[in-house]
Amino acid sequence: MFACSILRTTVKKVPAINAIRLLSFDAAKQPKIRIGSKAPNFEAPSTVGKLNFYNYLGDSWGILFSHPADFTPVCTTELGAFAAKKPEFDARNVKLLGLSVDPLERHSKWVGDIEDISLGGKKFNFPIVSDSTKQVAYLYDMLTEDNFKKITSGPVTTIRSVFIVDPKKTVRLIMTYPPSVGRNTDEVLRVVDSLQVGDKLHVVTGVNWKKGDDVIIPPSLSNEDAKAKFGSFKVVKPYLRYTSPGKN
Questions:
Q1: Is 4 a catalytic residue?
Q2: pLDDT of 195 higher than 50
Q3: 235 with 221: CB under 8 angstroms?
Q4: Which range is the signal sequence, renumbered to this chain (predicted)?
C-alpha cells in the first residue's frame, strides 16, 4: 500500500540524472541531503497534474517546502504568504513548490480555504504535491524520528522543511522547523537574494544582510585583486572588507 513507485523518466537538460528509484524506506539507504548535494528528482501528483521536479524547475531556482497536513492553521497561513509573495520570487527566477502527504483531493479543497483566508479571493498560484506514498518525505528526510519509525505502518505528518535548489539542481540551503513553528517568508526571500548576489559577484553577506546592503569581499581575494574587481571598498579589518553590490 505504501510502497514507492519506481521512476525511470530521463529528465531533459539534466541527462546524466534520472528520477530516483526507490525500493524501500530503509533508513540505512536513505539519501543524505546536504548543502551541495544534488537535489533528488521525483515524480508525484500535484494540484497542476503529475509533476516531475526537474522538469518543473527547468532552468529556474526552486523552493521545495513541506507541510504537516492540509487544513491546519499554520500551514494555511504559510502557503497564503508564499502565494502573496510569488511575484517577488518570480522576479528572481524562483519557482515555488509545496508538499504534504495528504491526498490530492484534500489539496484541491484546501486551496479554496487559502484563497479565502490569505489571498482575498485571488487564485492560488503554485503547485502543491500530494506525497501520499511518502516517497518525497523519505527522499528529503522530512519526518520526525517518531514518524519515520511508522512510515510503513500508518499515517505520518511531515515537518516544516525548506530546500532552496539552484538551476543546476544543487541544494543551496536547508531549513528545518518543528511542526509547531511557522516559517518566515521574508527570510527565505532574503536567502535567495544572498545566494544570487553571491553567485554573481563571488561575495558573501553578513548578519541580517538584505538586498541592496554592502556585501563582504572574501579574504581569499587580495586587496589588489579586490580593487581591480570592485573598485572602492571599505576595510574594517584585513579579513573584513565591504563593497557595494550596486557598483558591480
A1: no
A2: yes
A3: no
A4: none
Helices (H), the chain: 53-57, 73-84, 86-91, 104-118, 135-139, 145-149, 185-201, 223-230
User: Would strands 51-52 and 43-44 be described as parallel, antiparallel, or unpaired?
Assistant: antiparallel
Long-range contact pairs involving 30-38 (C-beta distance under 8 Å, separation at least 24): 30/138, 30/139, 30/141, 31/139, 31/141, 33/139, 33/140, 33/141, 33/163, 33/171, 33/174, 34/171, 34/174, 35/171, 35/172, 35/173, 35/174, 36/170, 36/171, 37/170, 37/171, 38/169, 38/170, 38/171
Q: Under a CB-based contact definition with an 8 Å cutoff, are residues 5 and 131 in contact?
A: no
Which residue in this structure is represented by grid cell 509573495? 85
**Candidate list 57, 63, 75, 139, residue with the active-site label:** 75
- CA contacts within 13 A on the Cβ side of 239: 0
Q: What are the structural domains, with CATH classification, of the chain?
A: 27-183 (3.40.30.10), 202-247 (no CATH)
**What size, in residues, is the chain?**
248
25-45 pLDDT, tens digit per residue, is 888 888 889 999 999 999 999
* pTM metric for this prediction: 0.85
